[in-house]
Amino acid sequence: RGGARARSGGKMASTAAGKQRIPKVAKVKNKAPAEVQITAEQLLREAKERELELLPPPPQQKITDVEELNDYKLRKRKTFEDNIRKNRTVISNWIKYAQWEESLKEIQRARSIYERALDVDYRNVTLWLKYAEMEMKNRQVNHARNIWDRAITTLPRVNQFWYKYTYMEEMLGNVAGSRQVFERWMEWQPEEQAWHSYINFELRYKEVDRARSIYERYILFAVLVLVHPDVKNWIKYARFEEKHSYFAHARKVYERAVEFFGEEHMDEHLYVAFAKFEENQKEFERVRVIYKYALDRIPKQDAQNLFKNYTIFEKKFGDRRGIEDIIVSKRRFQYEEEVKANPHNYDAWFDYLRLVESDTDAETVREVYERAIANVPPIQEKRHWKRYIYLWINYALYEELEAKASKRTRQVYQACLELLPHKKFTFAKMWLLYAQFEIRQKNLPLARRALGTSIGKCPKNKLFKGYIELELQLREFDRCRKLYEKFLEFAPENCTSWIKFAELETILGDIDRARAIYELAIGQPRLDMPEVLWKSYIDFEIEQEEYEKTRNLYRRLLQRTQHVKVWISFAQFELSAGREERLPRCRQIYEEANKAMRSCEEKEERVMLLESWRSFEDEFGTDATKERIDKLMPEKIKKRRKLQAEDGSDAGWEEYYDYIFPEDTANQPNLKLLAMAKLWKKQQQESEAAAMDPDKDIDESQT
Predict the structure, then answer these.
(1) Is the pTM of the predicted complex or chain greater than 0.85?
(2) Closest CA to 369 of 425, 411, 327
(3) How many CB atoms lie within 10 A of CB 268?
(4) Which residue stretches, if any, does this entry annotate as coiled coil (predicted)?
């Protein structure tokens, strides 16, 4: 068999040395993709599933004598040593080896393995823990102490060693030893939980004084080492004193905490805890002082819990005034946030000012007003200033009516008037309010000076009217005349001013001046309400019973306008003149109006005139005049006209009513045609009625 293998080996070597054979590649006939594709994800999933398949358990080996046992131990130790030799840094191999030796009660061997492992990696926490647990499990207390001492000496910042060590000593009943370990731990200045563990340890053995000294040491450590120690440590210390009924000590701890944190690092939780402590001691006034002190100094956004607890306290122990104070304080905080977010939100300022005016002193209100008026609108346009100006008005009214400070009120008005850009716009109400304030202070020269300054800087109709009304109330008619003259020079188109000026002269009995004012007014080239002015002038002449002048005014007005209401008013004036020839005069006016309105395109106005004329004839006319006016009344007909849209397209037809007047000769054929159409329609209706009822026709013929 060996010779055959040698011969075959030699043959293969000779073939490889000669010419290397290339394997044939199978030709793929169908290169289309398969219907079921195998993805990489599928391959990985199948591999993972096959990993979960259970392997058959190894066969059980029964050891029957000591020799077999020693052989088994030798094989296992060799396996563990080989694993350690392969990779010494894998601590799990050392731990498994030691635990196996421990299971065989080979404590000395296990201890040797742990020592060898510590030589490899003494920083491994798990290794120290397993080593110490093995010693404690086998009741080797001194060995365990030795290991814990070595562990905390080597790795003093691993808190788990200290916890395990102190717990072991406490379980052994060695309280002094456990306290000694805690003291060694505290020298390393550990974290907060370590101190509390020490305190709880002392409290378990009723050592309250020792616990208090530990709290003091921890607080001192926190003050000296930490820049800003946590508030909860002070609170825990105070609650510890309160729990053991040392109320004076607890209050002192809270006071020390408040003093330590000061006003720069105030925390609402400290003050809430302090207030609840005082509440438990029934010191309600102290509670209220604590809450108010904190609310005045802590930023509002950080004091939500403080507000809530203060409100609950006042509802439980306070009166109505106290509850209102806390609610007002909370609303003030809300308004402060609103105005801080948008300083030009004047509605928020109004609400805020209304709140502080109702519940605070004058200095606080003034401070809020000053903050509000400091937010001047950035754009010099009147629409942006309309809300802002009311801040100044309310400020001045508050100083005058609530604070009773006339000097400050005058300063507010003057500051506001200096701030306004009068060259661009002004607010007449501010000038008038200032003048009225000075009058209330019985300082008439200052009031006149203010209004005169306003007219000189920024004349407005409202300023002139307010100044004139002031002088009228003071019965200074010469000043009123001068002001009206200035007013009409400023706004000659203002018909109301002309009318008021003339009425003033009428009241004063100077009829000629009043008539001259009216003449000047109607002679102006441009007027805003000329019809009101003419009507006032006509009513003035009628009151003076100057009928000829009134007629002349109507004739002059008709030269300017042929409006139907002017003709009707003229006719009614003639009717009410109260003379014998009033009816012929009135009828003559209607005749003239009808002739003048024939050329008017607005047929509705002409119809209005004829209806007024017919009403006059129905009341004062004869049968002949009534018949004549009836013949003048138009026919109302319905017509259609074509509509066009905005783009010029056809929009359909529209029906409308038109009037045909008998007097218009151009419309006579239309009237004749309309009359003939009506007659034909009447005949058609009669013939249809006869056809529907033949018996009636026979009866009528017999009759």
Answers:
(1) no
(2) 411
(3) 20
(4) none
